[in-house]
Design goal:
globular, Double-stranded beta-helix, 284 residues, alpha+beta, single chain
């Protein structure tokens, strides 16, 4: 299976995602990079093995997809590279170098922003031999699997997202926000069913953690509906599970997916990942 002339791929799972074969991103020419971008937009997620990328090279690469997005929390960005965020349990000189257990629970990144990130990219610097998998759910397939009457019930529903609520209630690393962070992250409202701007395909677009109500529904009834849709969209038949190897790059389209991480034995193993985001647009 191929996309452009020099891009070889194989599906991550039937009907979703693409592993890109034989491409070294650090030395790839412009035509090859265009092929990688094209593959991403058509497949919902891409993965490449055996990459060797510095933080600066990661920023250069992701810039092919759009403008790299800033991070809400700054303390774990890589020194000199504010667009590169470290996820890790490593401690250096008594201080953690990254966010630990970030991203556990099905969600889409920056759902609490008026313009959530379009894409998320992870690069594996060091990975445990077991655990710490990343799971990505194909929410277009989930939407298409719903009966027409359920689609009609859901289409048009609006979710109320709150960063303040998310940060004060999350299981790992709960914190009260400073007044500055509250002002920078006001509550936002997004559709439960999102339309992809590239080709008009629809995706179920719930998210755990940030949603506090469905507009026009009793609070608990609305939250139950969101939970029901998250459970539906994250059935095994819709989910790709990625088992990491050092040098892996994986990137997914937040406009049509949910994702989560799995835990690992952080008393035995070190995990270190670099995360980058691409700026997105307003969901509709």
């Amino acid at each position: 299976m191929s996309t452009l002339v020099n891009i070889r791929t194989r599906p991550l799972m039937p009907g979703f995602g693409a592993e890109i074969l034989g491409v070294d991103l650090a030395t790839a020419d412009e035509e090859t990079l265009k092929g990688v971008v094209d593959t991403f937009h058509r497949h919902g997620a891409i993965m490449l093995r055996d990459q060797k990328m510095s933080p600066g090279q990661l920023v250069d690469f992701i810039s092919n997809f759009g403008e790299p997005e800033d991070h809400t929390l700054k303390e774990f960005t890589v020194p000199g590279h504010p667009k590169v965020y470290t996820l890790s349990n490593r401690v250096v000189d008594g201080k953690p170098i990254g966010a630990h257990n970030d991203g556990v629970g099905w969600h889409t990144d920056y759902s609490y922003k008026a313009e959530p990130v379009m894409a998320t990219m992870l690069y594996a610097v060091e990975v445990p031999p077991e655990g710490s998998d990343t799971l990505v759910a194909d929410c277009v397939a989930a939407w298409n699997a719903l009966p027409p009457e359920k689609q009609a019930e859901l289409d048009g529903k609006i979710l109320h997202h709150s960063y303040q609520y998310f940060m004060s209630t999350r299981e790992y690393g709960a914190r009260e926000l400073s007044d500055e962070l509250k002002a920078q992250n006001p509550d936002v409202y997004h559709p439960l069913v999102r339309t992809h701007p590239a080709d008009g395909r629809k995706a179920l677009w719930p998210s755990t953690g940030t949603v506090i109500e469905v507009m026009g529904m009793p609070k608990q009834e609305g939250l139950d509906l969101v939970e029901e849709m998250v459970e539906f969209a994250t059935q095994d038949r819709f989910v790709y599970r990625h088992k990491w190897r050092k040098g892996d790059i994986m990137m997914w389209d937040n406009r049509c997916t949910l994702h989560t991480g799995t835990l690992y034995d952080d008393t035995k193993y070190i995990r270190e990942m670099h995360r980058l985001w691409v700026r997105g647009d307003k969901p509709y």
